[in-house]
Amino acid sequence: MIFTFGANEAGVHGAGAALAARLHHGAVLGQGVGRQGDSYAIPTKGKIRHGANWGIGRPLPVETIKAYVDDFVKYATEHPELEFQVTAIGTGHAGYTHEQMAPLFADCPANCSFDTDWKPFLGESRKYWGHVG
Fold it and tell me: Per residue in 1-23, pLDDT tens?
């Protein structure tokens, strides 16, 4: 099972589902996007520079998040042998609503299961697993 979580582009993974991904699913500090261990990061917050270091920035625009989601959908489609546990990405620290985020995942293949909070937006035909938090 690939734990799919909302991240920041800096790859800080310090709270919420991102922290769970780092502690339990192989997410890598400094890697804010894509597959890492048994996890997949989808950025919902940007990064800012603090001197020589990168830190967490503001929430990304929905259109930017959608581009990252599209990359994830492509990856999940190309890897039907894997199962993806998709958290309610973007609805925690990024501050978006389930209604704003869930539809971005409408094109996910059958090997993706979703947070139950997204059932009203993705429909009965999807697989659901519960929720983090």
Answer: 999 999 999 999 989 999 999 99
* The residue type at 75: Y
CA 67, CA 25: separation in Å to the nearest integer?
24
Residue numbers of the domain that contains 9? 2-130
Which residues have a Cβ under 8 Å from the Cβ of 123 and sit 6 or more positions away?
none
CA 73 – CA 86 distance, rounded (Å): 11
Structural domain count, the chain: 1
Q: What CATH number corresponds to the domain at position 114? A: 3.40.220.10
Residue 8 bridge partners (DSSP): 45
The closest of 113, 86, 35 to 11, measured between CA atoms, is 35
Q: Which residues on adjacent β-strands are paired with residue 42?
A: 6
Other Cβ atoms less than 10 A from the Cβ of 74: the count is: 12
Closest listed residue to residue 44, CA positions, set 86, 101, 85: 101
Report residue 133's pLDDT band, with 50, 70 and 90 as the boundaries: low
